Automatic annotation (TrEMBL):
Enzyme Commission number(s): 7.-.-.-
Annotated protein name in UniProt: Ion-translocating oxidoreductase complex subunit G
Keyword entries, A-Z: Cell inner membrane, Cell membrane, Electron transport, Flavoprotein, FMN, Membrane, Phosphoprotein, Translocase, Transmembrane, Transmembrane helix, Transport
SMART domains noted in UniProt: FMN_bind
InterPro entries, sorted: FMN-bd, Ion_transpt_RnfG/RsxG
Taxonomic placement: Bacteria, Pseudomonadati, Pseudomonadota, Betaproteobacteria, Rhodocyclales
Stated family: Belongs to the RnfG family.
Annotated HAMAP family: RsxG_RnfG
Superkingdom of this protein's organism: Bacteria
Length: 202
């Protein structure tokens, strides 16, 4: 009887709701805490897989994730550069760069050898038009392989429509034009900071 009377009081409902909220919040925090290591490991595995895709096998024998340097990029935003070493000698650099595409930012990962020659390019993120602009994905088209072996002074950095040497896509010229520009900017960034990236004394 006393319980029935208590339930009729306004305070009972408030306390019940607060208790349920606290218990739910605690459960969510516990679940988040328990899954953090797995999420972090999955992110690290994805990053490792991406780094391997833009560097030829055997170019580096160190753990790239453990050998990094942060350098101010365009707009003062820090760029994390993953450094490859072969028998302890600096041999490669991998880093991200981004630019605005047709429908949003296009984020690329570029791998270079010590001399600044492109070893591989992968598009990590984009919002380009499916069936047109998404040909920048290696899973949809081999187009990004055209950058391999290119360097600042050894390529005409533009799409063919602009007098460059890289193919454009029918109906989606903006997307490949942006990727070409982004790769070139990445090479310029590397050229400007090579000494710092390599850890050499100026």
């Amino acid at each position: 009887m006393e319980l029935a009377i208590l339930r009729d009081k306004i305070g009972y409902h408030g306390v019940s709701l607060a208790l349920a909220t606290v218990l739910t919040g605690a459960a969510l925090m516990l679940a988040n805490h328990l899954t953090l290591p797995a999420i972090a490991q999955a992110a690290e595995d994805d990053l490792k897989a991406s780094l391997v895709q833009v560097l030829p096998e055997g170019m580096a024998d160190n753990n790239l994730l453990a050998d990094t340097v942060s350098i101010d990029g365009l707009g003062g935003k820090p760029v994390t550069v993953y450094r490859g070493r072969k028998a302890g000698v600096y041999s490669a650099a991998v880093f991200q760069h981004r630019a605005r595409g047709y429908a949003g930012d296009i984020v690329i990962l570029v791998g270079l050898n010590a001399e600044g020659v492109v070893q591989g390019v992968r598009v990590l993120k984009h919002a380009e038009t499916p069936g047109l602009g998404d040909k920048i994905e290696v899973a949809k088209s081999p187009w990004v392989h055209a950058f391999e072996g290119k360097a600042l002074g050894t390529a005409r950095w533009g799409v063919k429509k602009d007098g460059g040497e890289f193919d454009q896509f029918a109906g989606a010229t903006i997307t490949p034009r942006t990727v070409v520009k982004t790769v070139k900017e990445a090479l310029e960034f590397y050229a400007a900071h090579r000494t710092e990236i390599a850890g050499e004394k100026p």
